[in-house]
Design brief:
The protein is mainly alpha-helical and 133 residues long. 68% of the residues lie in helices and 0% in strands.
């Protein structure tokens, strides 16, 4: 009779890019053979991506409240809405992230949205550099 699925050592055959079918970080042999490699790969993708997301959120919030100092004539209500937009969109997209991540893979999806943020920043920076002073 075969062993229950939870006790099989299928995690030892993990290949990068494949779905993680088994995760036992408390099992020392699993952690030494596979677990730490998978965790390191995920950390190298997720930490920069999440940092980038929080930087976008913070920079926009700090920048938006100072727009009147550089010549924009925004009301207090408009400034509050501008600072609320990153939180509202982040919270809304978090709901989508809950469902999209498992479909496409969390690491792949995290890398995808981080790349989108970098591309958006690059286009925004290029546009700002080309604007006349």
């Amino acid at each position: 009779m075969s062993a229950p699925t939870s006790h099989r050592r299928t995690g030892d055959t993990y290949r990068p890019g494949s779905t993680i079918g088994e995760w036992r970080p408390e099992d020392d042999s699993f952690w030494r053979s596979v677990g730490h490699k998978v965790a390191n790969r995920n950390l190298w993708v997720s930490i920069p991506a999440l940092m980038l997301g929080f930087v976008v959120w913070q920079v926009w919030s700090v920048t938006a409240v100072r727009l009147n100092d550089v010549g924009f004539g925004l009301t207090t209500s408009q400034l509050f809405w501008l600072t609320a937009i990153p939180g509202l969109t982040g919270g809304t997209f978090r709901v989508l992230y809950t469902f999209i991540g498992p479909i496409f893979g969390e690491r792949k999806f995290t890398a995808f949205y981080a790349t989108c943020l970098v591309v958006c920043w690059w286009f925004y920076a290029r546009k700002g550099a080309e604007a006349p002073s």
